[in-house]
Specification:
The chain is an alpha+beta fold. The protein folds into two domains: 32 residues, no CATH class; 121 residues, Alpha-Beta Plaits (2-Layer Sandwich), CATH 3.30.70. Strands 3, 4, 5, 6, 7 and 8 form a six-stranded antiparallel beta sheet that branches. Strands 1-2 form a two-stranded antiparallel ribbon. It has a two-stranded antiparallel ribbon with strand order 9-10.
């Protein structure tokens, strides 16, 4: 659609009002109202990457971890989405072998305070998955920032100095 209302919409991040511009007219548009949204837009996104291979490149049983990630993120954000597997690759730091695998991403838009309150649960999940799937590294993304975990807590929900690789 050339010109017109849609060509002049401004979807800047972190704002719920946009400026509708027509020739000679500037009108503020409240996106919540215009879309009929039930609540204020949620800005924070958390994504858990679920691997399909272990640190040596052998296939692992990962479906239960996908289900558990969806459950955890749904408890925090009210829902979660599983993306189709994406092809990923990484270098094994010990052998320098290139490991290719299908990676399942599970994400949710969450309230930052609710996410912060559940950080111990998120940590316990990430560390347990890393141990159970024999990973050299697991990652979680929060608002376009990737966090790499390479040392996993020994006990469920624990953290501190007792770790293993």
């Amino acid at each position: 659609m050339a010109g017109g209302f849609l060509s002049t919409l401004d979807f800047w991040g972190r704002k719920s009002h946009i400026l509708r511009v027509e020739p000679g007219v500037h009108v503020a548009v409240n996106l919540m109202e215009a879309l009929g949204a039930a609540e204020e837009a949620i800005q924070d996104r958390v994504t858990i990457y679920i691997p399909s291979r272990d640190r040596g490149g052998k296939p692992v049983e990962f479906e239960d971890w996908v289900r558990r990630a969806m459950d955890l993120l749904s408890q925090i954000g009210g829902g979660a989405t599983r993306m189709p597997p994406a092809q990923g690759a990484w270098l094994n730091p010990e052998t320098r072998a290139l490991i290719t695998e299908d990676v399942t991403l599970v994400y949710s838009y969450v309230d930052g305070d609710a996410f912060a309150a559940r950080l111990p649960d998120v940590r316990a999940f990430i560390h347990a998955m890393g141990r159970a799937l024999s990973q050299g590294e697991v990652v979680i993304e929060f608002n376009d920032t990737l966090y790499k975990i390479r040392e996993f807590d020994r006990r469920k929900g624990g953290h501190g100095s007792s770790r293993h690789h």
